[in-house]
Amino acid sequence: MGATAIEAVDAADLDRDARAAWAAFRSARPELASPYFDLRYTLAASQVAPGAAVAVIRQGGEIAGFFPFQRRGGLIQPLAAPLTDYHGLIARPGAAIDLAEVVTALGARRLRYSGLLESGITAGDGEGRAAMIADLSAGYEGWLAQRRAAGHGDFLRDKRRRLRQLEAKHGEVAFTLEKRAAEVLEMVLAVKSEQMLRTGQHDVFSAPWTQGLLRRLTNSTEADFGLRFAVLRAGERVVAAELGLLSGDSYHLWFPIYDPEYAKFSPGALMTLASLEALAGQGVTRVDFGPEGEDYKKFFADPAGRVLEGDVRVGPRPLGALTQAALGAAPPTLRRAATRLDRRLDRITACEPRVGGRVGATLKSVALLGRRHRKFTVGAGLGLAGLGLGLTAE
Questions:
Q1: CATH architecture under which domain 4-130+307-312 falls
Q2: Under CATH, to which class is 137-284 assigned?
Q3: Which of 83, 144, 228, 301 sees the fewest Cβ atoms within 10 Å?
Q4: Which SUPFAM superfamilies match (predicted)?
């Protein structure tokens, strides 16, 4: 194999040979079909995400893989976290790359991830979840037959009934799958921001760079790459919309919204069915619903590979890690709460590259949690503050 050498470079500085290697690795490994592993996505994210870089990993003098990331002090995260649902090594088939070695070479102490591909790594401590994929390789009718065979015929019949009811009560139902729909982008951003604030989460779209990434993806002029906008209307009213990301014949459903006044008609499911039909008509063969967790995904997709949530640590443990270790002996309820708080911190750290911004966002999140869950105000506040100190120190 030879010695391993790891160098961090700006994505824009990858030369022709490196870009060719990236394309070859991706085409040779079906699990890298996701749009998040498209070099064009990395280039767009690198132009806006603070601390962005790509680790170029060489073994025996030859490029063995790439790892796009963003730096937050001694912590590194996948590039464009928390927006990037999947991440990992873009590596040659059969490569075995130690993520701890990558973290050390980058001068970091910790790597945090939430959707890391298992393939090709030899280090990492994380819990696995299935990636949920809809297979459209046999077309939309073939997919429908597949879902019926899987026992979901009642679900499909129910959605046809709800579609008829929606049309009868609110007028003609129309669906579009568009490119460069600026007004849809603004609507989705506004609704998702309001939703995150209402549920006590950090508003990831309050960071200028996250909006900047979506706008760059919207403005892509390439026919097989960039954001697409699914919109379902009843009469003149938008009842559901979603941003999705296209790369070749693969598509990732990303940010959905729906009008709660129309909830009884299942507008989200109706939009998803219409999206799958339209995408199949455009030659898309794989639609990714993200990692398992939400129950609705099983009606549309099947498990296909696993992704991990966890971290890689090197060197001494910081204060935040000690706080988490102390929670190891706590009751399960408190441990689950700590896990949720850790995820909140990950989002804040990703969105806010400056320590001051992280501290302000952490305090705001504590206040929101306190208003929503008064019984847990003190425990949640202490837990989040402790974790926050750890990550800001890193």
A1: 3-Layer(aba) Sandwich (3.40)
A2: alpha beta
A3: 144
A4: Acyl-CoA N-acyltransferases (Nat) (SSF55729)
